[in-house]
Amino acid sequence: MDRLQDGKVVGWVQGRFEWGPRALGNRSILADPRRAEMKDIVNTKIKFREPYRPFAPSVLVERAQEYFVLPEAANHYPARFMLYVVDVRDEKREAIPAVTHVDGTGRLQTVRKEVSPRYYSLIETFGRATGVPVLLNTSFNLKGEPIVNTPQEAFYTFARSGMDCLVLEDYWIEKAKGIT
Q1: How far apart are CA 75 and CA 123, in angstroms?
Q2: Based on C-alpha coordinates, what's the Rg of the chain?
Q3: Where are the alpha helices (DSSP H) in 48-116?
Q4: pLDDT tens-digit profile of 31-85?
Q5: Which phi and psi (to 5°) does residue 78 adopt?
Q6: What's the gap between Cα 106 and its chain centre?
Q7: What is the pTM of this model?
Q8: 2-174 has which CATH code?
Q9: Strand 109-111 to strand 56-60: parallel, antiparallel, or no bridges (unpaired)?
């Protein structure tokens, strides 16, 4: 997805609503983790919350150990649900600054092709293009609001925030230049 590589912030709505404490790729706001400024952009212009708040990295399960200290990442079932905070490998911290917390950790989500084929494909495509198979992922909502459920809620939230694009199943919506 070229827009992510270009520094755009994308709302991503695919499939059924997820149940649980985290957005895992069905109702997510996504950005390029290689850009340190993405943390501030997403916090202040999209989520309207404090700029120090961290974001989670979504990573292909078979590439997780390259970026995070999590031996045998594929065997850690809770990592699918962002339930682990682990160290980002020292040599990878500069590669993914937007999802590396100030203490050098990340609350990662491992993504499996058989569980989330479309989200997996997006991360895989981004990884092939950039060399980094990781995306910044946060829940698709604004401060104080629940995660979006319906297409109407997704569009309404997209329109009220600084998100640049919205992928709603097979539909692509992009704001015209100068509109936020």
Answers
A1: 20
A2: 15
A3: 64-67
A4: 999 999 999 999 998 998 888 888 999 999 999 999 999 999 999 999 999 999 9
A5: -60, -25
A6: 12
A7: 0.94
A8: 3.90.870.20
A9: parallel
